[in-house]
Amino acid sequence: MIHHVSLGTNDAARAVRFYDPVLAVIGLWRQSMEGGSVGYGSAAHEYLFALEKPVDGREATAGNGVHIAFAAAHRNVVDEFYRVALANGGTDGGAPGLRPRYDGNYYGAFVHDLDGNKIEVVTYSAS
Question: Which residues pair with 59 in a beta bridge?
């Protein structure tokens, strides 16, 4: 079981301006922000997702082929996540839609955050 996932950021203050509204769409809120680290969670979980300056002190870079997928309850949540991400400076990585190569009901969207990290939101719901 995964406890949490972290992505690198070079500017935590800038990152929260993107992630606060985007993650609120799927029920995650900022739980902490200290130093160069930011933690997000839900009411049931303290931390599920974090943004951090790399511990080696080098610049954070996005990994080619790496992405984080968040679960959504319904397709309208996927659509809203995508809309809010783009409205807050994210860039398109794949508009909301069915991805039948994964599953007949796989409905997802992909965006890149302000540091270039690829994030996805997905649902298997038919509605």
Answer: none
The backbone torsions φ and ψ at residue 84, rounded to the nearest 5 degrees and listed phi first, read -65, -40
Write down the CATH superfamily of domain 5-54+66-123: 2,3-Dihydroxybiphenyl 1,2-Dioxygenase, domain 1 (3.10.180.10)
Query: Which residues lie closer than 8 Å to 125 by C-beta, 6 or more apart?
Result: 72, 73, 74, 75, 105, 107
Beta bridge partners of 33: 38
Please name the amino acid found at residue 92.
D
Write out residues in the chain with pLDDT < 70, as ranges: 1, 44-45
In the chain, what are the domain boundaries?
A: 5-54+66-123
